[in-house]
Amino acid sequence: MDETQLDMATLAIRAGYQQTAEQENSEAIFPTSSFRYHSAQQAADRFSGDEPGNVYSRFTNPTVQAFERRLAAMEEGEACVATASGMSAILASMMGLLQAGDHLVCSQSVFGTTRVLFDQYLRKFGIEVTYVPLTDYAAWQNALQDNTRLLFLETPSNPLSEIADIARLGELARANQAWLVVDNCFCTPALQKPLTLGADLVVHSATKFLDGQGRVVGGAVVGPAALVDEKIRGVMRTAGPSMSPFNAWVFLKGLETLALRMKAHSEQAQALADWLVAQPAVKQVYFPGLASHPQRALIARQQSGPGGLLAFEVAGGREAAWTVIDQTRMISITANLGDVKTSITHPATTTHARVSQADREASGISESLVRVSVGLEAIEDIQADLARGLGMIGSSQQD
Question: How far apart are the C-alpha atoms of 157 and 361, rounded to whole Å?
């Protein structure tokens, strides 16, 4: 099968798996910690790398490798390393590419735990970090130093849906002998392929849309073999943040419906965003699909859909935001996202709670901000569940 001739939706179902002698049609799970060898010589050859094959499930497992090959094909990358979580994917990338004395430039609009990782742990090992506004190209350029080795960002950003110009930042990185690493968690390869736009590496929290049903935790790093296999895979092998075979199998099943789900999530989120814009208690809606989005041209150029994540601000600060959240009866109050179940959270006190107030304000994360990961329930039911709390805010504002 020539995978280069297949559509991404087909790759999501067919790519990367080698059928066993049992001739199964659904991918097999290999829940084994180790593998047997025919002889001591074969064991020695496997451990030395002279003979390809499985060694130990911490770093070689057939189910995990199937997930890696499939996601790499979907992202149009040469190689993939699967990890235990999205955060371990970011950590493995940083440990594989950077060393003491290096400098990292990061968007200020990233997941709160990513900032904690960079500020509390990378800095401890002698890596400098500078944060810049995601969409301010001049700020990225001005932040570069002689020792800058890596640029890191999420696009769309969490939770305000700002969009980075991947091609432009890729050119900037290459001109300064640095790598561009893009977190593609919110779009997935179904809606955006950063490697084709100029990124050097893509990282994923597979926990989110790649799974799609909130079942398991995992992460991945995708890119050229020279980076993934030669610099990052060794970190995973030695440090051990590996993905379990069962989780890899769940992700394989999730990938099969990814294209369909991302299209449906995008349509649902678009309908909810349009509805929220018309609600009196809502001050502003942040969503890539809105005609009012300031980066509409860029979105059309690098994304094939807006995705399923949106945020909105309400009048009345934290109390009003919590009212909207607490009045829901169907929507799940959880900080996870990318599920077929709609979820809602208050970023300032959950996902970004460990970020300082000053940094939250600089990133535009106010106390009145609410984030919604739009699921696949009937859109009328999602709207009705939010309308209860929004109506209470509207009434209090009028009083």
Answer: 15
